[in-house]
Design a protein that fits this description.
- The chain folds into three domains: 182 residues, Aldehyde Oxidoreductase, domain 3 (Alpha-Beta Complex), CATH 3.90.1170.50; 337 residues, Aldehyde oxidase/xanthine dehydrogenase, molybdopterin binding domain (Aldehyde Oxidoreductase, domain 4, 2-Layer Sandwich), CATH 3.30.365.10; 140 residues, 2-Layer Sandwich (Aldehyde Oxidoreductase, domain 4).
- The protein is built from 18 helices and 32 strands.
- The strands form eight sheets. A seven-stranded mixed beta sheet has the order 4-8-2-15-12-13-14, sandwiched between helices. A six-stranded mixed beta sheet has the order 10-18-17-16-11-32, sandwiched between helices. Strands 1-31-30-29-21 form a five-stranded mixed beta sheet, with helices on both faces.
- The longest helix has 28 residues.
- The protein starts with a strand and ends with a helix.
């Protein structure tokens, strides 16, 4: 177990019974090591950008240099004349009538046609025999633009004479929004805010601004498309959702889905940024056009334009409370900037609205969330998915209320904390553990780290100072602050989405021992499915050797590796398929050996340690003896309980599958004269339901916490409001936390079983991203006395310069 980690198992609800394979080494509940871990640390792991094919070409994209403009002319002649160039493609060269794609709304052109809508939009493609040749040829394409007025914020998007980002919207949400520049609007109304307002002894309001965050994965978009003899194409790429990609790619290519074969390549991080299509369609188009394999690899500059980002947001909140600290009401308006294309903005709006009250009991709410079309960069999925922006605002509100009431901020939150049985603002009951008050108690009860740690007997350690190794402060003006936050995040896809996964499980005898093979389309993007899937198979089938088949589209969909859903849904599918495989193995055993031992007729036979045993532990046969030359294989889908769309007028509906909760305590030291912040500690407490792999679970909490830290104090894509151009598309100017910025992150994990989930587990990878950001801001406020209603916090916000 990771140092500074405490695990508490407290019975709650009806824990899922685990009877199978409990004594099989490497099963669920153990901290098994990742098979790809050493390779990644040593640099030997093969990522998608490392792929190679004999006689392959290199693809290059020409991107728009302006954010909103008509394309007056486009001349590719000089590019085609460059030696080594095999193809130059524009919108007019696309092979089918389907020239747009999109995850939820098909509004994104494969290549720009008639106009461009954001800085960096793909306009043309080049394939050449060398990457530098492709880049030089792309630079020779001549484009004449006529720039158009920009839509950059709510005022310009919703003005009476507003320019329409999409002139002819053709999607099912268009009829439900008050303006064509609104992608989606979700109100939620419950109780009576007006009456509750009159009963409040204290009312606080706040205007909050949340910056645009990049997923900042280290492996840029890349892939290899190989044309096949049957007229199809084999695509190897880094993605989060193979089958979603497939549904968008095949129509553009004019191919049936079975002729577009996709295989997962090594992924260098994702965090939501690989849910949307990037180079997939473009590489396939070039491969099919030239008849040669085509590789595409974005550089870092391109990567900032090649994927969606976290929605920047403006949030207005009002909360009321009685003098004894009970919340009376909440009203809020959340405006999310979705950029030029819809991506998953509609779903992000639904999440932001439905989770905007936080993990608190509030009977009276009036909520509105909207997502805009603008000429800013497209935004979509990122870890936390709409709940992050809301948590930043409502947690600041909790601190304001506690201060006005002269109450301890932790006690105030605990007084209003939801629990199992609480009714959400959407009318949905929380029917599994919701230990919000306990999570807050755990982080608050940890001892505080020593103050002024740079003042040691061995001498000053500048790494512990605000400013770090740059040594810009000597500590004279440094003050400490402590802040708390807690958040609620949904798990899985919501609002009636048919959320399921598929698993193919096979067991056979190889080399004299039973071997299981697990085949799913679940994308391994670093979350640890490659480990957990094997652990489930070992647990359920009682075998030691488990092979994880590479993820591809030759098996049924596993959905996206997002929404903290894969262990829940694909883990559930693997468990289900393993159970069916086990029954088939036992049927074979009963047929072969049933007449020799009456126990074969018993109901409770298990597979453990490579044997068939009774529930009392008596061995009846080995799995090898049962199977001999037989092979058992099952492919089954698994669905969680259904959800329903939120009502478009009231927001009522059982829209979510499961809720996850995490709390943080941040300890910071701030040089108030220079505006420098050092985050000393970010203690986290989270209910994980069941830690299938405790080491991996702690790693997820550490990673999510650090991403929340990044957006608190450094991460923001800067878009010029006059040109809508990205000003900092590089890791030189877009800052992310390094090991020197990352604080100590002690973790408390609760294991309170969700009776509806496989093994009682709870999706855990997103929730810590919510509460770490507002905890850091709360600690900085505590140190400085400043209001600080935007993120990230910059030095000038702390010094007034």
């Amino acid at each position: 177990m990771t140092r500074n980690t405490r695990v508490a198992t407290v019975p709650a609800g009806t824990p899922t019974k685990v009877t199978q394979g409990s004594r099989t080494k490497g099963g669920i509940g153990e901290s098994t090591l990742r098979p790809d871990g050493t390779l990644k640390v040593t640099g030997e792991f093969a990522y998608s950008s490392d792929m190679w094919h004999e006689d392959m070409l290199w693809g290059q994209i020409l991107r728009s240099t302006v954010a909103h403009a008509e394309i007056v002319s486009l001349d590719t002649a000089e590019a085609l004349a460059v030696p080594g160039v095999y193809a130059v493609l524009t919108y007019d060269d696309l092979p089918t009538a389907v020239k747009h794609y999109g995850m939820e709304i098909r509004d994104t052109p494969v290549l720009a046609h008639g106009k461009v809508r954001h800085h960096g939009e793909p306009v043309a493609l080049v394939a050449a025999d060398h990457p530098e040749t492709a880049r030089r040829a792309a630079a020779k394409i001549k484009i004449e633009y006529r720039e158009l007025p920009l839509v950059t914020d709510e005022a310009s998007a919703l003005a009476p004479d507003a320019i329409l980002v999409h002139e002819n919207r053709d999607d099912h949400r268009a009829a439900h929004v008050p303006h064509p520049n609104i992608v989606h609007r979700q109100p939620i109304v419950r109780g009576n805010v007006a009456q509750a307002r009159s009963r409040a002894d204290v009312i606080v309001e706040g205007e909050y601004t949340f910056g645009m965050q990049d997923q900042a994965f280290l492996g840029p978009e890349s892939g290899l498309a190989v044309p096949a003899e049957d007229g199809g194409v084999d695509l190897y790429c880094a993605t989060q959702w193979l089958h979603s990609d497939l549904r968008q790619i095949a129509p553009v290519l004019g191919l049936p889905e079975e002729k577009v074969r996709m295989t997962m390549a090594g992924v260098g991080g994702a965090f939501g940024g690989r849910e949307d299509i990037s180079m997939q369609i473009l590489a396939c188009l070039l491969a099919l056009h030239t008849g040669k394999p085509v590789k595409m690899v974005y550089n870092r500059f391109e990567s900032f334009f090649g994927h969606v980002h976290r929605h920047p947001a403006k949030l207005h909140y009002e909360h009321g409370a009685t003098k004894d600290g009970k919340l009376t009401h909440m009203a809020c308006r959340i405006v999310l900037d979705g950029g030029a294309y819809a991506s998953s903005t509609a779903s992000v709006v639904g999440n932001a609205a439905s989770l905007s009250a936080g993990p608190y009991v509030i009977d009276n709410v009036d909520i509105e969330a909207i997502g805009l079309y603008t000429n800013n960069p497209p935004c979509g999925a990122m870890r936390g998915f709409g709940a992050v922006q809301a948590c930043f605002a409502y947690e600041a509100q909790m601190d304001k209320l506690a201060a006005r009431l002269d109450m301890d901020p932790v006690e105030f939150r605990q007084k209003n904390a939801m629990a199992q049985g609480t009714i959400m603002p959407t009318g949905q009951p929380v029917d599994s553990p919701a230990p919000v008050a306990e999570l807050l108690r755990l982080v608050a009860s940890r001892p505080l780290p020593p103050e002024r740690q740079w003042e040691t007997t061995e001498g000053a350690d500048v790494r512990a100072l605000p400013g770090g190794l740059s040594n810009t402060t000597h500590g004279e003006g440094v003050v400490r602050g402590v802040g708390y936050a807690v958040g609620i995040k949904n798990v899985g896809f919501s609002e009636g989405f048919d959320d399921y996964s598929t698993a193919r499980v096979r067991i056979e005898v190889i080399g004299g021992e039973p071997v299981a093979t697990v085949h799913t389309a679940a994308a391994e993007v670093g979350q640890g499915g490659v480990t957990v899937h094997a652990q489930i198979a070992r647990t359920e089938l009682g075998v030691q050797q488990v092979t994880i088949h590479p993820a591809d589209t030759q098996v049924g969909s596993a959905g996206s590796t997002s929404a903290a859903r894969q262990t829940y849904v694909t883990g559930g599918a693997i468990k289900n398929s393993c159970e069916l495989v086990r029954e088939k193995v036992l049927e074979i055993g009963r047929r072969k050996f049933g007449s020799y031992h009456p126990a074969w007729a018993g109901a409770e036979l298990l597979l453990e340690g490579g044997k068939v045993v009774t529930d009392g532990g008596e061995t009846l046969a080995t799995i090898v003896d049962v199977l001999e030359d037989e092979v058992v294989e099952v492919e089954e889908e698994w669905r969680h309980r259904p959800t329903e769309p939120f009502d478009l007028r009231t927001g009522q509906g059982n829209g979510h599958v499961q809720y996850a909760f995490a709390a943080h305590r941040a300890v910071v030291e701030v040089d108030t004269e220079l505006g420098l912040v050092k985050v000393i500690e970010l203690a986290c407490a989270q209910d994980v339901g069941k830690a299938l792999n405790p080491l991996s679970a702690v790693g997820q909490i550490h990673g999510a916490t650090t991403q929340g830290l990044g957006v608190a104090v450094m991460e923001e894509i800067i878009v010029d409001p006059k040109t809508a151009k990205v000003k900092n598309p590089s890791f030189t100017d877009y800052l992310i936390p390094t090991i020197l910025d990352t604080p100590t992150i002690p973790v408390d994990m609760l294991e309170l079983a969700d009776p509806h989930a496989p093994y009682g587990l709870r999706g855990l990878g997103e929730a810590p991203t919510l509460s770490s950001t507002p905890a850091v801001l709360a600690a900085i406020r505590n140190a400085t006395g400043l209001e600080l209603n935007r993120t990230p916090v910059r030095p000038e916000h702390l010094t007034g310069t």
